[in-house]
Amino acid sequence: MSLQDYQLELLAPARNLAIGIEAINHGADAVYIGGPGFGARSSADNSVADIAQLVQHAHRYNSRIFVTLNTILRDDELEPARKLSWQLYDAGVDALIVQDMGLLMLDLPPIQLHASTQTDIRTPEKARFLQDAGLSQIVLARELTLQQIQTIRQATDPQRCTLEFFVHGALCVAYSGQCYISAAHTGRSANRGECSQACRLPYQVLDAQGRFVAHDRHVLSMKDNNQSANLAALVDAGVRSFKIEGRYKDMGYVKNITAHYRLLLDQLIEARQTEGRPLARASSGSTRFTFTPDPDQNFNREFTDYFVQGRKDDIAALDSPKNPGQPIGYVSRVGADHVDLQLDQVALQLHNGDGLCYYDLQKELQGLAINRAEALSAAKGRWRVFPKDALAGLKDLRAGTQVNRNRDVEWTRVLEKKSSDRRIGVWAQLSEAGAALVLRLTDEDGHSASVQVDTPRMPAKDAQTAQQAVRDNLAKLGNTPFALIEAQLALAAPRLIPSSVLNPLRREAIAALEQVRQQAWQRPARAVPVTPPVPYPEDALSYLANVFNQAAHAFYRRHGVQLIAPAYEAIETLDEVSLMITKHCVRFSLSLCPKQAKGVTGVQGTVRAEPLQLRNGKEKLTLRFDCKPCEMHVVGKMKPGVAQQARKELLQGATEQPMAFFRTRPLH
Fold first, then answer.
1. Are 286 and 423 in contact (CB under 8 A)?
2. Which residue in 177, 254, 544, 599 has the fewest CB atoms around it within 10 Å?
3. What is the pLDDT of residues 517-535, one digit of tens each?
C-alpha cells in the first residue's frame, strides 16, 4: 500500500473565508470552496485574495484547499476560466474541482484536477476513464452501494486516483449532472450553479387513469445523507476522502458536522492501529472541542444512509422539506396566550428563542418560536411557553399534539464562540553549545528547527524548581499552531534561565519551525494523462453528457467519441425528454412497485410500473420507470418562453464560431 492509501481525508465545505478557517480549526484535512466564478453554487463565490488567505491557514496544518470550477462553460467563458485557474494556482490552491472536460484541453497550470459530483461517476468504466484522463480524485455518485464502490476501486489505481464519497448533508434526488427540470421550467441550469430546487416542492401524484395516488406530497425530496455508521465499511470498500455537503451552510453547521466526523474518523484510525491495519489522518495535528458534536442539532430533513447498504423505502422526506427537529414531548394544554408542554425527559431545558414545530392534521409542518419559556415543574418536565406569534395562527395545535424542537438557542450560542483548538505536537530540546543556549523543536511530521542565544550561566539554587520553570516556559505556545509533547533538558548542570532569555528564544524557534514547515510543503502534482488518449466507454453521447463548448467537444472526439449531441442548455433539445434521472423510485416509496408485490396474495400481478404524473400548479411532469436498472425518469419539455429567453442569452455570449455538433455519425 502507498502512503496515499493509508490516509483518510475529511473534506469539509466552506461558503466563505471565515467558515473555511473554522473548518480547518475543527479538524478538516481539506476544504472545498467556490472562487469568484464558475462554481456550481452561484451565490457562494469568494475572491482570490480570500482564498489565498485560507490557503495560508490550511497549509500550516498540511490541510489542502480545493476550489470548485465545476459548471459547464460556454465557449466565451473558457478563456476567463483558464485565467482564473492560473490566479488560483498563484494563490496556492491545491486542486480544482471540475465538471467540464473542455478545461482539460486548455493551457491550465500544473495543478491537480478532481472530478466533480456533476460528472456522474457510477460505473468502473467511467471512473477508470477519468483516472486515465488525468483526474487525481473522483467523487462517486451518492447512489452507489458498498459493492459498487468496491468494484470501482478494483478497476482503478489507488496510487493514481483517490475515491471520494459524500458522507453527510443534503441529497440531490437526481444523479448529479442529470437534472434539467430547473433549466426547462425557469432557465436556471443546475449544471451552471443555478438550480431552482423543484425537487423540494409538493406534488399531486396521479396514475395512468388520472386517479390521485398522493396529495401534496414532497415525493422528490430526499432526507439528508448521514453515513456515520458506515465509515469503516466505506474505508474497506476503498473510499479515502469523506466529503461533507454544504457550501451554502452556516458556520454552526460546518463546525458541528466537521467535528462530528473528525471524532469518528479518529476513533476508526485508532481502532485500526490496534488491529494492525494502520490508517492515518491526511493532515497534521489533533483537535479538541469545547462541545459534544451532534448532527441532530443542525438543520436536517431527518437522516438516511441512502443506497450504501441497498435500497430502502424510507429515503424520502415525503411530508416536508423543512427541518422537523427532534421530539421533545407533547402539548398538555393550550391557553389563551401560552402552551403547556409535558417533556419526555425531565433533564431537558427550554430557552427563550428556541424553535418548536409540529405536524398539523394535513401533515404539514408548522413552526412555533418561543418568546418566553417558564418551568412549571422542571422536576416533572412540565413547561409553559409563550409563542412569539398569536396562538390563533398556529393551525391544529391542541392537547396531545407531539412537539419537536428544531432550534436550541443555547446550542447555537456555544458554536458562536471559540469551540475548537487544533494543535501540532512538538518536542523541545534545550541544550548547550559552548556559551550558547540551543533550543531545538521537532514537530510530529519530523520537521526540525534550531535557534540559539549566548547567555551567561547562572547556577540554580533549587535545581528541581529551576528545571520545572524552564519546562513550563517552553510549554507556553499560546496562539501558535503547536502544543508541547515533551521538553528535554540536555544541560551540563541545572541552571537558572530567566524568562527574558527563554521567551524570545521560544518565539524565534516557533517562527523558524513554521518557516521550515512552509518550505517543506509540496503541492500535490498534476496527474499525467495516459498516452495515447484512452477511448471513452461509449462512442456516442446524448445531451446527458453536458457538452456545452467546442473544447469539450474536441476532448470527447480526441477520446474516440463519434456522435456528440449538445448539452440541454444549448436549447436544441426541445422535445419531451428525461429532465431527471434518479435511483429514487416514487412507486417504491408509495408501495406501488411491482417487485414489492411479488409473492403477495391478491396483489401480485395487479401492480404494474405504469407511468405516473406529477402536478404542481400548472407544472406537469411524467414519471416513467425503467425497472431493469431500477431507475426513474422524470420526463417533460422546456417551456417555449424559457427557450426563447435562453437563446437570447446564448447569443449575447456567443463567439464568432457558434457551437456546431454532429447530427449523424461522421463518415470518417
1. yes
2. 599
3. 999 999 999 999 999 999 9
